[in-house]
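Q: Make up one entry.
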Amino acid sequence: MELELPPVIHENYHLLVSAVALLFGIVSLYGLRSNLKTRRKSKEIWRKSSNNSGNDGLQSPETDGSTDVIIVGAGVAGAALACTLAKDGRRVHVIERDLTEPDRIVGELLQPGGYLKLIELGLEDCVDGIEAQQVFGYAIYMNGKNTKLSYPLEKFDSDISGRSFHNGRFIQRMREKAATLPKVKLEQGTVTSLLEKEGTVQGVCYKTKDGQTLTAYAPLTIVCDGCFSNLRRSLCKPKVEVPSCFVGLVLENIDLPYANHGHVILADPSPILFYPISNTEVRCLVDVPGQKVPSISNGEMANYLKTVVAPQIPPELYDAFVAAVDKGNIRTMPNRSMPADPQPTPGALLMGDAFNMRHPLTGGGMTVALSDIVLLRDLLRPLRNLNDAPMLCHYLESFYTLRKASHLADSGVPNSVGHLMGWLPVSSTINTLAGALYKVFCASPDPARKEMRNACFDYLSLGGIYSEGPISLLSGLNPRPLILFLHFFAVAIYGVGRLLIPFPTPKRLWLGARLIMGASGIIFPIIRSEGVRPMFFPVTVPAYYRTPRVA
């Protein structure tokens, strides 16, 4: 049966086509402007690697060649990467600041696309035995109305879904698995600096838990020491923003209105999230815009949660929410956003939150990290000798390009990575979606922003292709930037169409124009920071063609 467009969208079809054509013209212009910057980076990384690939190679005379890769940090990215490279025969030395179980209020939701990557890495058993909960979609609440959005999982086995859990339990499971592998050395210590020689990173200097200062050497050092990384400045150009903070609570012995679904309340001033993290616990995250939050110690936070937030909570969760506030275990964490902007550094690579962060509203961080690990594994597999500095640099540069490159998979299997030409741009799509969705979901006194927010909720409530497309992007199952681009502006056009019904008055026309301008002002800066060429025109980037073909 053929789906019919709603009347508003149908009547504005030509407007939509014209708008999309205009917007793509602007995107192309941005792509041309970023061309020079990319060429300069390519030349610089080649120059550095060539200058330092003489008789000494990357390996220092002080090393006995017992380590192939040093990994700084054993969080989700570091622990998963250690397991992956060790299973490929690499000798891995992992140095983690604190090997006790982490206690965090984020990194608790793994989208279905991320779970597929976990399976691809052979780490799916790490969600067993930690009371991980299956997640099948989201329920969105706004102004007394709600709509349910289910992940498009019809083509997958019943075990495929999202997973939510205690972050620390998940990390400990992966660390335990890494520690059992004979090629992994897992050590507690604090890396204080990277060891460089003539521009090439050769290893790290670190302090053990006993206070000894030691050095470790390897042809490749991968830094994944998290959002508070003290090493990223030598490997990238960090532009960290803190748009908001999360206030975290745990609700106990409560059933969510929609079982096994995340719940998003479009509250004022910003969203509130609920999702299960164990058999008896539900995580609540209250987003507070800005970098300052009410004080917990003097009771301001509890008062804020009870007087401002609680009245906007669904009635089914109200009592449990107030009880959690009264219990007093209130946690806060700043939400950081940082686009990936690597500096060419032979012998080193950044990964995880140390390299790239996005607003955690969409729960995409672990999906991006695991996707990057799959890509890096496939890139390095044909390169048995990591001491070949120029070749290694080519592969690392290809990693930075391919994690954003949008080439359609031709294997016919969702999210399969049989070979790299089938790679889909998980990172850039999820990053763009997270930034854009957060700005749309936040309340605003601006009438145009209000219309965009209302249009987004109503668009998703239409169901069918109007909800399935966006939720497939959110889940990481269909990370195509063009789909994101089209749905984002379809929401804007949908909002404009509603304004023009029944009569397009000058005031409504002006509000519609402001809505389109506002939507452009939201998404285009994010796309530009991600990189227009690798997202939409990867075939114009030289590094795209320097990838190995993995059978």
